[in-house]
Amino acid sequence: MSEQRDYKDTVFLPKTDFPMKAGLPQKEPGILARWEEADLYARIREARKGREQFILHDGPPYANGDMHIGHALNHILKDMVCRTQTLLGKDAPYVPGWDCHGLPIEWKVEEQYRKKKKNKDEVPAKEFRAECRAYAQHWVDTQREQLKRLGVCGNWDKPYLTMDFEAEATIVAELLKFAESGQLYRGAKPVMWSPVEKTALAEAEVEYEDIVSTQIDVAFEITDSPIESLIGAYAVIWTTTPWTIPVNQALAYGPDVKYHHYRAHDGRRFLIAVDLLEAFFARTGLGPVAEDPEGDITLSEYSLGTYHGEELAGTVARHPMHALGGFFADPRPFLPGDFVTTDSGTGLVHMAPDHGEDDFDLCKAHGIGPKFVVEADGRYREDWLWLPRTDERSMSVIHPKFNAPEGPVCQDLHETGALLAASADYKHSYPHSWRSKAKVIFRCTPQWFVPMDKVIDRDTPRCAAEAEIRAAQGDGETLRQTAMRALSATRFVPEKGRNRIGSMVEGRPDWVLSRQRAWGVPITLFVDRKTGEYLCDPEVNTRIVTAIHHGGVDAWDEENAQALLGNAYDAEDYERVTDILDVWFDSGSTHAFVLESGRWPELTRPADYAGPPADLYLEGSDQHRGWFQSSLLESCGTRGRAPYKAVLTHGFTMDSKGMKMSKSLGNTVSPLDVMRDYGADIIRLWALSVDYTEDHRIGPEILKGVADQYRKLRNTFRYMLGALSDFNDAERLPVTEMPELERYMLVLVGQLDATLRQAVDAFDFNAYVRALSDFCNEDLSAFYFDIRKDCLYCDAPHDPRRRSYRAVLDTLFHALVRYAAPVVVYTAEEVWSTRYPAGDSVHLLEWPDLPSAEADMDKWTQLRSLREKVNEAIEPLRREKTVRSGLEAQVTVPAAAVPAGTANAALTELFITSTVTCSDEGEMRVEPTTHHKCGRCWRHLPDVKEDGTLCGRCEDALATVEDAG
RNA sequence: GGGCCGGUAGCUCAGGUGGUUAGAGCGUACGCCUGAUAAGCGUAAGGUCGGAGGUUCGAGUCCUCCUCGGCCCA
Q: Which residues pair with A619 in a beta bridge?
């Protein structure tokens, strides 16, 4: 065998500096720095100025702690939305924001105090708030850097903070709109209250612990009933909080519970739920017979009647302490309560609206209000009829002695004969204060509310603002009705969100606005000490807003009261409300502050624009109860419509087994770690690959899969970059002069384009990423690139086939880099700058304009399926090493399987074999080639004289190259 | 405990109005190539569609119950 010439240096191999290995964690920060230096966000705004707007309004995350996986997912989705809209040519700005007020921050600052042995109560409020402000600012700055690192493109230099003075002023102004239109009232509501700390507690400040309580059974004598036989019988209630009996105001029954009226062995008649009789007998010994050792009593002998709960409506009892007169002598009505069960107790529940949520709601619905007789320290009011304050009895209601079977309540009940049983042996879990570890009670305190079902009164308008709001809201519509109407005009992605928020709005109680806290926006109301009405004077309100605007929330203090009230009022006559606003009101007002203030020109709508200022709100599904709803109610109450046109919700990120992440389980995945180990583009690709509409998972295996997917995408770009090295626009050919394969590929990329556009419209990003990825894998790498490898490497540079291929590659490159840019933002930039080192950012580009092309798609579908069959047929020969690659195979296919008019040469090219011939046989045949192998292109062709010499095509190609050289 | 949502190959996902042997990509295994080379190509294996009942000639798709998980509320 003669020495063969090595033709390697005559083959046009891909040439690129673009590395196969990404090294994203090292590379990304540099790319980010370049964007910042070039002020890319501002340049994109400039480039899209005047275009159709797409306003995504950022829901403010809480400024507390590092970015976690939920933040990452949420912001990647937001970034994807803005970037795809921008790519489509719209002006889609992104102004990030933070929620800065509220309890968790207060806590952290208090915690720091405790470490320094400082007492919060000794620190002036202004100083305390200043520390809260500083604490929030610290986390805003931290999260801002972390989110930037994720590749999120936005106005990071000017985010919105709910603690900005302007924001605080806007929030107050929004509150005053509610006030001026009569949509505020002062009511009461049971809240968790710590008698030790003398303060209301939030749910998060409470922990549950197992304790042993006194359980008592108390008889309430029935004084009237539609069921006459019940009169004179005793309704029995069971409770573990004896201290609430002196404020009992009603009894609740379960409408679907069955009750028994029977005569006990002592002659008294009792009313009890059927299912709970046995337990009741065990506690009280009040069975129909004194002793029942055999347990074989038949109640029917002693039964005086069985009643369905509903039949008890209209029944009235009297309080065991009715002899005290006054409050205690009033009748105690039976009320229907859905919450009444037969899990424990007697099936009848005593109602003290002062001290229970169910109690409060049920009583309120029947016109019975709380009495406010337990004071902040947990003691009964001195003048309360029941209990003269003797030393012995004057103690906090949480005191064990107070509730003991020997305690004052049980004693008194016992004396009246109403106490059927009392024992200090009931184990259950009960809320305690996080800080003092002391027991907590429910206690009614005055709170400010926004009514859900009040029609703004037409006859007595308070202020000019009211007229405006009336006009915006439907005529005679309640806030709930306005909100429901607004929801029906909103697009939900996914659609099921509508149902979720809808049922919440439908069933929610009035909005409690007030919190007894320090770090927040004040409820800036002056209440007339005589009438209890809040002052509603637009001039005063204007002064208040202006003061907050200049001085922040600190401006609402006692010293300023007279100045704010002005000359028309005397501060002495008014109580300055010191509650602060629920932080949900803060965030519910961000649309006003961020979208309508003009402070962010990129968010400002044209003067003639009407309708919701935001195109989209995009948050986790927990925000159905949170921000989506608070924004809806705030906007409906002040503008009569939702602040958004569409709402997109995403699920939560679970660990690799689908379990919720928690620090204690040690299964958390930090986006900061993922960025450090894999890079931001990997976590972005992950977020955009999963089905965000549901809960989804992340874990090592999943990330490995995402990294693999990334590598394929990256290599696709690397190949294109290499194949397009030295590409010259002059190489291009008109589409109509291109080979069919090229035209087919152009149609395919056109289909991909349509799929991607549709995915963008539907915010269906996993479909977007999958379509892109599948196209790279199936249509490019395994099909087009593989087939055209020979053409790229070996055709002469001027060959129309090669020119066509490179032209299509160039089209593909420009399309794909744009499609990929919103997803892998860093890599797309790296790809783009590798090809155009002096060029501008890839993120300034617009959606690709594809050349129109036509191809016989049915024919190509047939050819590709035939190609699969050929591969299957070659496989056995490869297995037995008869041939090693397809290039050594000679294939005979049934002519019937080949689309009409397809040349054998075309099939050979397509199947990457030595030759393909058609025959009339029904079976496909594969055999090893008899042709020699070209030394340059390695194909086995008839015109190669011996192995290692050249085929005609390569000879010509070499000749032209040498001529040119 | 209540409301709402979900459970399709190892992983990520497709599977209008119920209709032939449940699909894709990745990963895996095996093989090829060594001129995209920590790359590329090919073939193959993998699922009792969370479980149990039911409706139907026929159910991943409809109904009921159970189970596991999630969000919100209590």
A: A649
The pair of three-digit structure tokens given for residue A119, joined into one six-digit string:
């007492």
Nearest to A940 by CA among A918, A912, A919: A912
Fold of A857-964: Isoleucyl-tRNA Synthetase; Domain 1 (1.10.730)
Residue A668, judged by CB atoms within 10 A of its CB (0-12, 13-18, 19+), counts as middle
Q: Which nucleotide is nearest to A690 (CA to C1')?
A: B12
Tokens of A7: 């033709």
Check if the beta carbon of residue A382 is closer than 8 Å to that of residue A389: yes
Q: ipTM, 2 decimals?
A: 0.97
Reply yes or no on domain A200-445 having CATH 3.30.70.1530: no
Torsion sign, CA atoms A695, A698, A703, A705: negative
First to last CA, chain A: 31
**A869 C-beta less than 7 Å away from strand B:** no
User: What is d(CA A258, CA A273) in angstroms, rounded to the nearest whole number?
Assistant: 6
In strand B, the nucleotides that come within 7 Å of a protein beta carbon are 3-6, 10-14, 24-27, 31-44, 69-74
Token look-up 């090595």 returns: A6
Which residues lie across from A258 on neighbouring strands? A308
Exposure letters A891-913 (e unless 16+ CB within 10 A, then b):
bbbbeeebeeebeeebbbbbbbb
* pLDDT < 70: residue spans in chain A: 1-3, 201-205, 289-302, 342-343, 385-392, 428, 434-435, 457-465, 474-475, 964-965
Q: How far is the CA of A722 from the C1' of B39 (A)?
A: 13
- Give CA–CA dist A672/A679, Å, rounded: 9
Q: Which nucleotide is nearest to A868 (CA to C1')?
A: B42
Q: What beta strand segments (E) does A488-643 contain?
A: 491-493, 511-512, 514-515, 526-528, 574-576, 580-581, 614-620
Contact A440, A433 (CB under 8 A): yes
A881 beta carbon < 7 A from strand B? yes
Has domain A11-19+699-844 been given CATH number 1.10.730.10?
yes
Instruction: Count helices and strands (H / E) in chain A.
Output: 29, 31
Nearest Cα residue to A955 out of A12, A7, A14:
A7
A516 touches strand B (CB under 7 A): no
Give the pair of three-digit tokens for residue A3: 């020495």
Q: By C-alpha distance, which of A941, A894, A949, A955 is closest to A922?
A: A894
A203 touches strand B (CB under 7 A): yes
Q: Has this prediction a pTM greater than 0.80?
A: yes
The token pair that represents A472 in the structure block: 């915006």
pLDDT digits (tens, 9 = 90+) for A61-113: 999 999 999 999 999 999 999 999 999 999 999 999 999 998 889 888 988 88
Distance CA(A75)–CA(A773), nearest Å, equals: 22
Per the DSSP assignment, residues forming a β-bridge with A91 are A53
- What are the residue ranges of helices labelled H in A9-99? 24-37, 40-48, 69-87
Question: What are the residue ranges spanned by the domains of chain A?
Answer: 11-19+699-844, 200-445, 857-964
- Rounded distance, CA A490 to CA A867, Å? 49
User: How many CB atoms within 10 Å of residue A131?
Assistant: 18
